[in-house]
User: Fold these one by one.
Assistant:
Number 1:
Amino acid sequence: MAGDPLAAVGEGAPRSTGRRRPSLIRVLLVLVGVAALYAILLSRYGLGARPQPADVAIVFGSQVRTDGTPSPRLVARLETAAKLQRHKLVRTWFVSGGIGREGHDESRVMRDWLVAHGVPDSMIVCDSLGRNSRLTADHAAAWMRAHGVRRANVITQYFHVARAVMACDRAGIEVVGARAPRWYEPRDLYSLGREMVALPVYAFSGR
């Protein structure tokens, strides 16, 4: 009936489109999935890296303990770097790091450890101003240009390989290979998350 008030209300009500917006939980699950895939790819890139014959091994620094000894993470990097000598893959080790909060020069500690484990002191170059990945790459590139060498292997933790290689590429170094130690600790979860943010930031800003 034309005068039926209920019919008029029904005609004026908005019609359902039948479409539902994704729930917040679904969006979060997608984001978690993407982040997990990103973390896996970043980790596999670092773990899959292999060293090649090169002029230089660029060893990125890490924490030194208060007693002046390298942290287990740094020891793992140095052990990996020392193995390159046994396979005769490089002629020079460029060890780079800054002065940590503990007051020790990372590069000197790295040099001393390598010498104690069979790498001749004459084959090691120390960079005491490599406070971050970009500076390490820039200083290594400057030394390599001055000595007429180009090819390098990068030695660092698996989660850091991608950004370290990018920094060296930008500095003009021909990175032919890399190696990450098979050593892990709970702190890797934080470090991996940090690299997941730092890598794209570095890619777009150079910092």
Number 2:
Amino acid sequence: MPSEAVFSVDVEQDAPPYLKTWRGIEEGLPRLLKMLDELGIRATFFVTGECCERFPDKIAEIARNHEVGCHGYLHERLDLLPFDEQFRRLKLATEIIEKTIEKRPVGFRSPNFRCNKHTYRALVKLGYFYDSSVPVYGLGQRPETSGLIEIMNTMPSSILRLPSVVSLPIVQLGLRVFRPLVLDFHPWELVEMKNVRWDCRFATGKVAEARLRKVLTNMLRIGVKFRTMEEVAKELRNRNIYK
């Protein structure tokens, strides 16, 4: 059976909370979409409601070939908010995304991978059926008890910006350990970042674009099958792994 991977993209302002600019959407996103189209990879994009309001045409363009999920309304710590406020903001984001892409999102990723039981309760109430807010390399409350299907993030985006002599062996190891391997990325990483934390700025811009293409091309060369998170979640549900 071939290895499986999900290429996920968090669509937000540039390197939040450090910058309030949107160069990643304006400059990086078109190049990322072009790369995925050339490689024949369908991805899952988690977008904020604010981004949909600012760039509805660009988000609609994403939805033509890829899955669009929710990344909250603003890029903020939801786990610091009470249930009623979390629900209000998630409902607002969900409605904005649905209006933009003419389809209700079914998957969610919390900004900063920070959420809690109130987040999961709100998501279930809003009709979501899978969540990708928990990284395997972090700690936090799991959503399984809420009834949501959990697809954990397994590969932070900074790894994809490392030299290929480092990143390719890490990715190959991940493919052996995780099914699917979930890669995470941001459009702003394809734009040279300045005045942000070092791990958000190293090897961004054209270097990141070249290194990402090399990783994805190598994965395709060795037979990796890329799927959307919605496809993975439906398979898990059909196999009764989550009841």
Number 3:
Amino acid sequence: MRWQEGMIYDRTLVDVTNRTAKAFFNVSDWLRIFGNSKIANQLLNVYLSLAVPFTELSAPTITTFPAVADINTLIQNIDLVRAAAYLPVATGIVALKYDYVAGNGATAPDYTSVNAWEQDIQLIRDYLISSANYLINCGVGTCGQVRFWQVQFRSWIYVSVAGSPVRRPRCGIVSSGSNLMRQTLWRKY
């Protein structure tokens, strides 16, 4: 499965009233949104090691209509990935409503809702890919081994040498099980 370009999140009321191509929500839009939200979920798993539950949906055809439960599941998948990505509101990402009900007079997603779905997916993908440049690969820090073994990973090419002799954590997870001096030695550079 590949990322499908052409996310549309600039629909306007003029598009709807003039019945332009962006005004209609069809099977290709559904498949693009579902496929791209699945890829955003996989990127979240690869880059941040977060496993977000993702509900599979059957692919619609031109002769089928999605039920309200299908629409809510599609939106909930996107919103779970959005919540796990934890992007700041300043990026333009918004919480999505996924509690629609069937029936006359009930609220239904409109063009602004679909814009929000597609924009959230696009923002998640863009920010996860751009954040990959800021990840630090530092190897595995172990405690309890001989001293030369603990500092081996600091000489890898992935970690640059610091300009000043300060202590900063090199990775998010510190393994423990030895005395304090040994645990903090590997974080110095």
Number 4:
Amino acid sequence: MQKTGEAQQQVEAVKKDTEETIKKVNEIAANATNPEVKKELETLKSSLNDSLDITKAAETTLQSTRQVQESILQSIPPNVAGTVGSWGVVVSTDDNLAEAQYEVNKAKGQGYTSVSIYQKGKLLRTIIEFPSSSDAQSALPNIRAKIRNDAFAVKLDEWCPNRMPAGDNSYRCPSAEQFMTK
């Protein structure tokens, strides 16, 4: 389920970038005077719109898949689902600290106090932490409604094994290769 959630956040980022690129192409086309350039820009815009349609379809499919996965998890008895351990709800994937900190503040503004930033690879993930799977799953609908509609739950010990503190309420998720070379 966490892979589906991560994929959904990545698709959302691609959709946003494509929409912004379409706007820029429209702005350039509005100022272009050369007919050949205008024609090329229209071709580019058409291609971007096709990509945007495909991205939206993928987003819908991922959302449906995530809902099916969640309904399956809800039907598993709690002791089988692994309620013990630290759980989190991933609310964002960001490229820079300012964006991640914005998401932290947004979550704290909704009353969540245990909010951390995890660096996994080159990306920063804002995560609201919970003591159990049932706590994370119970909070998920509210988090999706008020913070981010593509948030998803993860078991932190599996999602970020061997996490290392990296400052106040921040962690780094070392890759397996880093441990193999040490």
